[in-house]
Amino acid sequence: METPGFLEPFVGRWTKRHLLDLESLTSDEITLLLDVAQAFKESTQDCRHKLPLLTGRTSVNLFFEDSTRTRTSFSLAARRLGADVIEFSASSSSLSKGETLLDTAKTIQSMCIDTLVCRHKAPGTPQMLAENLDVSVINAGDGPHEHPTQGLLDILTIRQHRGDLSGKTVAMVGDIAHSRTARSNIWGLQKLGAQVIVCGPSTLVSRRWEEYGVEVSHDLDAILPRCDVLNLLRIQFERQYTRPFPSVREYALLYAMDQKRMQRAKPDILIMAPGPINRGVEITPEVADGEHSVILHQVNNGLAVRMAAMWLLSAGRAS
Amino acid sequence: MLKTLIQNGRVIDPSQNIDRVTNLLIKEGRIAAIDVEPQADMKVIDATGKLVVPGLIDLHVQIREPGFEEDETIESAAYAALAGGFTSIAAISETNPPVDSAAAVTYLGRQASEADHCNVFPVACVSSGRQGEEMAEIGILHNAGAIAFSDGQRPVSNPELLRRALEYTLMFDRPVLNRPEMVELSRDGVMHDGSVSTVLGLAPMPAEAEDVMAARDIRICEATGGKLHLLAISCSGTVDILRRAKDRNVSVTASICAYQFALTDAAMRGFHTNLKLNPPLRSQEHIDACIAGLKDGTIDVIASGHAPRSSEKKMCAITEAPFGMVGLETALGLVSTHLVHAGHVDWPTVIRAMSTNVAKVLGVEKGTLQPGADADVTLIDPDAKWTVDTSNFRSKSFNSPFGGVELTGRAVETIVGGVTKFRYDGT
């Protein structure tokens, strides 16, 4: 299929082979990804229509960690673009027979694939695959390191609801230490001119973020009145030995976004959560389902962002 | 009678405070004299422009045989040692079964003498089965030839065991080599805890995991009077604690791995598994403190920390990869490049830390060019520029992050007991 008119202005502007992180992207590259995602959304009725731009190409979902929305979203994005999709789970793979990660990836590559979408619990794994394989690699989350498409869809959601990011104050609240979403958001938001605050218990929010121009707070009530956007991160109980806070009850008391706290917020505050959400821990149901919440918009934007990334990395890339 | 004259080299022997250009005579496998003029019956080795030093000794070499011969055999480790300029290595058990029996010590010795490369000094386990619970049969191991006791990369976590071991080894006048690390603070860790780990999301190994344990170990050492050697220190806090202990004449010594001076934790941005090291690459402030510690004698020894791992073990996610890099063949080049040519320390300081002091810590009669000593001599070209080519390693493993890196300075001839065992031919 020929490139449709709405994509013409974007052809050849993307140069990178992989999408591994937002830290190494320029603000122009991030803006391009967001603009293409927005264009897909507007021209395909929220990504309902198929656009067979990647017919004959194959994308592999190589997921070593559980995932519902990200995996589904990547599959759907590839299918909407007419690509074939192969699902590959660690449990059903040769990895359980002792094959190395790299050999598994090379085997998959030899099936003539074009794009590898990888999720792994270890930071850097997508980068390692990118260095050793001859395909485009998209990082779908590498441990606590980065989750670039999640960062992009969060930023796209903010842009849709509040316009230009410049000068906006966005707080990421919760388990920053173990959050790849937080890291991708931090870099993306900063590059687009937003002020980022990370907020949560001192055991999960390192003061070292100040070295990167991020404001660090342990007091949600203190920063709340200044925030244009709150992004509420899930507590990742599965990643720790000694609990970083005494109890869930205490965490909720200090950091859960509830109706009472909403009173202290700006009247047009945007409430986001990358999900899966723990209702009653970081967010109460009234807030999650309330008028300020754009959680489901985020999910829909995920599809647009992933279509944009897949198209830019292959058909839309500068040759 | 075979006589060899090493002519016109810069002879550096910290044990005698010698540092001058002269000739060194070897006779019947022993150092005979210096300042000797050449005579007709001498074989002459021209050492013009080279350093002539007491054979280097590495007190931190992980041994993988038996159990992990795919990584390294005793033979290949000893061969790699020669290529790195080492005439002796202390072989620390990272084996299965561990070296906690007389039979295992004897086996190690036999494999080493069959290989006939460099001297291999067996280091036996402190604890039975290397389990960190009960003392190994230290007296029996000593009688079998063990020169020191260590659980290697596994720190002695139980303070009572360390106390007992330091008291018990006093009877044999042998050191305990212990790696100071409080594992509860560093478990699952991949890299130095700092601003780089914060960004990369890699689990941290905080400096205090080391210095807290070093403080504990030193206090137990002080209380018992035993000989404690802290293996592979890397942090400013440890250097500080150590310096104060030495001011009180505590019988503690310490070593640092050569790679520690070459790279900072920022190198972890590539996520390469060959850079997953324990101790991890630290930040510049720690490196600076360690250099200061080396200069003022707080840190006694530079070791290689040689940790061979076959390539398939490193072809995985960084969280799953084992720690370590091969070090024997690059240690001297790294030290020469990053400490001497970088202007931090002079060659006599390096030779003290890589030979004279090592012999003292291990209690072996090496590390000197005094007449009568074993003729273990290393010739170093301090200005040789060479590029690390892992495919030329004598080690069985290639897990070095320095492949393709140009270094300045290397061993060009390694003489053990008067016999040239290695000569650098450009590869």
From TrEMBL, chain A:
Short name of one Pfam family: OTCace
Positions annotated to bind L-aspartate: K97, R180, R234
GO molecular function: amino acid binding; aspartate carbamoyltransferase activity
Residues annotated as domain Aspartate/ornithine carbamoyltransferase Asp/Orn-binding: 167-312
EC number annotated for this UniProt entry: 2.1.3.2
Signal sequence region: none
Positions that bind carbamoyl phosphate: R69, T70, R119, H147, Q150, G275, P276
Uppermost EC category: transferase
Domain Aspartate/ornithine carbamoyltransferase carbamoyl-P binding per the UniProt entry, residue ranges: 17-160
GO terms of biological process kind: 'de novo' pyrimidine nucleobase biosynthetic process; 'de novo' UMP biosynthetic process; amino acid metabolic process
Keywords linked to the UniProt accession: Pyrimidine biosynthesis, Transferase
Statement: the UniProt record of this protein carries the keyword Transferase: yes
UniProt-listed NCBIfam families: asp_carb_tr, PRK00856.1
Similarity remark: Belongs to the aspartate/ornithine carbamoyltransferase superfamily. ATCase family.
Function: Catalyzes the condensation of carbamoyl phosphate and aspartate to form carbamoyl aspartate and inorganic phosphate, the committed step in the de novo pyrimidine nucleotide biosynthesis pathway.
HAMAP family tied to this protein: Asp_carb_tr
Known partners and oligomeric status: Heterododecamer (2C3:3R2) of six catalytic PyrB chains organized as two trimers (C3), and six regulatory PyrI chains organized as three dimers (R2).
Entry protein name: Aspartate carbamoyltransferase
Gene: pyrB
TrEMBL record, chain B:
Annotated EC: 3.5.2.3
Pfam families (alphabetical): Amidohydro_3, DHOase
Domain Dihydroorotase catalytic: 49-234
GO biological process: purine nucleobase catabolic process; pyrimidine nucleotide biosynthetic process
Keywords: Hydrolase, Pyrimidine biosynthesis, Zinc
Any one Gene Ontology molecular-function term assigned to this protein's record: dihydroorotase activity
Key word Hydrolase present: yes
Domain Amidohydrolase span(s) in chain numbering: 344-419
UniProt feature coiled coil, ranges: none
InterPro entries for this protein: Amidohydro_3, DHOase, DHOase/Allantoinase_Hydrolase, DHOase_cat, Metal-dep_hydrolase_composite, Metal_Hydrolase
SUPFAM superfamilies: Composite domain of metallo-dependent hydrolases (SSF51338), Metallo-dependent hydrolases (SSF51556)
A cellular component annotation (GO) from this entry: cytoplasm
Name listed for the protein in its UniProt record: Dihydroorotase
